[in-house]
Amino acid sequence: MGTHRERRAPDIMDFLRPEAWEDALTVMVERPSTVPIQGGTSVMVGLNLDLNRPTALLDLNPVTELTRWEQLENGTLRVGAGVPYARLISELGDRLPALAQAARTIGSSQIRNRGTVGGNLGAASGDTHAPLLAMGAVIEVESSARGARMIPATEFFLGAKRNALAPDELIRAFHVAPASGPQYFSKIGKRNAMVAATCSFSIALFPGERRVGTGLGSAAPSPRRALAAEDFLAAELDWDGALDGAVARTFGNLVAEAADPVDDVRATAQYRRHALSVIARRALTWAWQDHANNGKAA
């Protein structure tokens, strides 16, 4: 006589679909344990694996304003939390190249048509965090009781799958300036897409300000910038000359030192540090080639 695993009776879960943003915020006040869902590429994985079972899902897809983006009077792009990766690539790829590169590595085309940066931020897990940090993005969140607030990406990630959202807040959009110089995103994984990154790195050049932005993913308890590496380039780069190989190597080493990785099933901490030093050096080299080519891809 064989044995079988007893299945747990499914818990009752409400599925809420407000059409207005204000109604969605009200739900978060009245039912703070509700889990928001947009593309579902993170939430549904947890549900299917029985890792979480919220009492209610808040479907934000009917809130159409979340699927829009605009350029504000100051030139900054405001991108709704519900704009899917596929549209980031096709509509904003020329203005946000590092973010578009990261989006191209996420899942299959079906996933890219559903998944969003807003979901990536809400889950505090994903490949878009590194370019958001490098570009200096700011996250717009809102609650019914306290209104909107702006959180710099550097202050948004608090730890492993933890972010700065209060229980009654929802992510409405992210704000970022269009690229003023070359940008790149690079990722190490068992293959180029449809797998979680072993580690990732993003770089953004700001030639007008003579500075460089960086972002590290899957390299510490939470995404972070490599501040010492940024300061090093600010002091050592000759913006009118060629890239010194020694400068690029030191930059890569400083990026690796900024990481605080762990050993897990995907890689050892030692491998992650080594990989970061390599992809950071390569990303800087690619970006500098574009910079020397008047900002155009070589």
Report on this model:
- With 298 residues, the chain is an alpha+beta fold.
- It is 35% helix and 21% strand.
- The chain contains 11 helices and 13 strands.
- The protein has helices at 21-30, 43-48, 85-92, 97-104, 109-114, 117-123, 129-135, 153-156, 227-236, 245-258, 269-292, and strands at 14-16, 35-37, 56-59, 69-71, 77-80, 138-143, 147-152, 157-159, 162-163, 170-176, 183-188, 199-206, 211-217.
- A 5-stranded antiparallel β-sheet has the order 4-5-10-6-7.
- Mean pLDDT is 91; it is low at 1-5.
Strand order of the largest sheet: 4-5-10-6-7
Distance, first to last CA: 67 Å
Average pLDDT number: 91
Q: How many strands?
A: 13
Could you tell me the radius of gyration in angstroms? Answer: 20 Å
Coarse structural class: alpha+beta
Shape: globular
Helix content: 25-40%
Give the strand content: 15-25%
Helix-strand sequence: EHEHEEEHHHHHEEHEEEEEEHHH
Number of helices: 11
Largest sheet: 5 strands, antiparallel
Uncertain ranges: 1-5
